[in-house]
Specification:
With about 180 residues, the protein is an all-alpha fold. The chain has a domain of about 50 residues. About 90% of the residues lie in helices and about 0% in strands. It has 4 helices and no strands. The protein is elongated. InterPro entries: IQ_motif_EF-hand-BS, P-loop_NTPase.
C-alpha cells in the first residue's frame, strides 16, 4: 500500500467517526427539543382549557377536597383507635397495680398471721391417737402453703409486668418527644 492511500483511509475513518458522532448529537438534541415542545404544548392546552371552562377547575378543587376529607377521616379513625387502645392499656395497668396492691396486703396479712400464731410446743402437736385408723391430716396448712406460693409467684409476675409497662411507657415518651 501506498502511504497516500493509507493516509486517505485514515482520514476517511476519522471523518466517518466524527460525522457519526455529530449526527447522533444532533438527533439527541432534536429528540430533547421535540419532547420539551410536546410538554409545553400539553401544559399550555391544559391551562387554556381550565381558563376557558371554570367548571373544570371547580371539579378539580372538589376532587382535591374529597381526597383531603378522606385522609382526615382516616387519620381521625386511627387516632380514635389509638386512644381506645391507650385507654385499655391504662385500665390494664390500673388493674395490675390494684392486684399488686391487694396481693401485697394479703401477703403482709399472711405473714402477720404466721408471726402472731402461737408456736405450739412439741407435746401439744403430738396428741395421742385414740383411733387405730390413718392419722388425720391438717388440710388447711397445705392450702395456706399453696396459697402463699401462688401469691408469691403472682407478685413476681406482676412486678415483671409493671417493669415492662414502665419501660414501654418510657419508650413511648421518648418517641413522642
Amino acid at each position: 500500500m501506498d502511504i497516500d492511500t493509507e493516509q486517505d483511509l485514515a482520514a476517511a475513518t476519522i471523518q466517518r467517526v466524527w460525522r457519526g458522532r455529530m449526527v447522533r448529537k444532533r438527533v439527541g438534541e432534536y429528540q430533547r427539543m421535540r419532547s420539551a415542545a410536546t410538554r409545553i404544548q400539553s401544559l399550555w392546552r391544559g391551562y387554556r382549557l381550565r381558563e376557558a371552562n371554570p367548571r373544570i377547575m371547580v371539579k378539580i378543587l372538589q376532587k382535591r377536597s374529597k381526597e383531603q376529607q378522606k385522609c382526615i377521616h382516616r387519620l381521625t379513625r386511627e387516632v380514635k383507635t389509638l386512644q381506645i387502645q391507650m385507654d385499655e392499656e391504662i385500665m390494664i395497668q390500673k388493674e395490675h397495680a390494684d392486684s399488686l396492691s391487694y396481693l401485697h396486703t394479703e401477703v403482709r396479712a399472711l405473714k402477720a398471721e404466721k408471726a402472731i400464731a402461737p408456736k405450739k410446743s412439741p407435746t401439744t402437736l403430738r396428741k395421742p391417737r385414740l383411733s387405730t385408723g390413718p392419722p388425720a391430716v391438717d388440710v388447711s396448712k397445705f392450702v395456706l402453703q399453696e396459697d402463699f406460693a401462688y401469691l408469691k409467684a403472682e407478685i413476681e409476675y406482676l412486678h415483671q409486668r409493671l417493669e415492662e409497662m414502665a419501660l414501654d411507657s418510657y419508650a413511648h415518651e421518648d418517641t413522642s418527644s
